[in-house]
Amino acid sequence: MSRAATMLIVEDEPETASLLETYFRAHGYQVFTAASGEEALSMAQAHPIDLIVLDIRLPDIDGFEVFRQLRAHRRTREIPVIFLTEKRERESRLTGLEMGAHDYIPKPFSLQELRARVQNILRRSRAEPAIDGLTGLPGRPLILDYLKEQLGRSDWGALLIGLQGLEAFGERYGFVARDDAIRAVGLLLTGINHESGDAFFLGHLGEGWFILIGSRHQVSAVAPQAIARLKSALPYFYPLQDMEEKPPDLPILRIAAAQAHGTEGPFPDPEAVIRRLLERREALSG
Fold this sequence. Notes:
By secondary structure, the chain is α/β, with parallel strands linked by helices.
């Protein structure tokens, strides 16, 4: 690295903010801290920030609004963001990830785990920002570019497919197991695409959500196959002992999917297609 990575920690609890600042400074990072959303936005504009650790609960505007405003400005829209959430705030975590945050970590958290996530995200963003570092598939920027090319046509289709229940799964087995499950889904979908003669554009929106884009007929035909293949793979994501014993608190992973087609348009922009898919997705039983 030509310079130390620079972090912005947005946290209104002084003890937590001081702990994170001290810890990451000791590991060679340049660290700024902000105790409110407005202060965080000012700092992000004033300094070259490589990554933001952003608490959702802030005294002025919440972390979601901070994230929206960061994404609205050219200087700050590409900064990776990790949300800090309360462990019970499942909906908050899902909202953050759907908005395009790179990761979340629930409180209380392990400093070592947070540092590992920070390192992974920085490595991905500095290497190939358009390619997802976990799966090696096109990430959100390339997905949006490809969708934009399709919007003038009516015969395209898009399949959103992925895993529901990853947050509980990750809390029980750790973020490495969670990432392994996401990577496995990407590999399975890549295999299906190869079997189809690479007829689809396949991208990774983030976390456990993937998108296949092709002709409407092709997408409708491949959807049942992709769903069935992923369902059959789900048991292999778990430790063998848990699959055999099935403890009552076993976190349940489910396949969820949704489709959108060009005939439903016009869509004003590619983000509108993504929103439609996310609104429609349904977990599939079995």
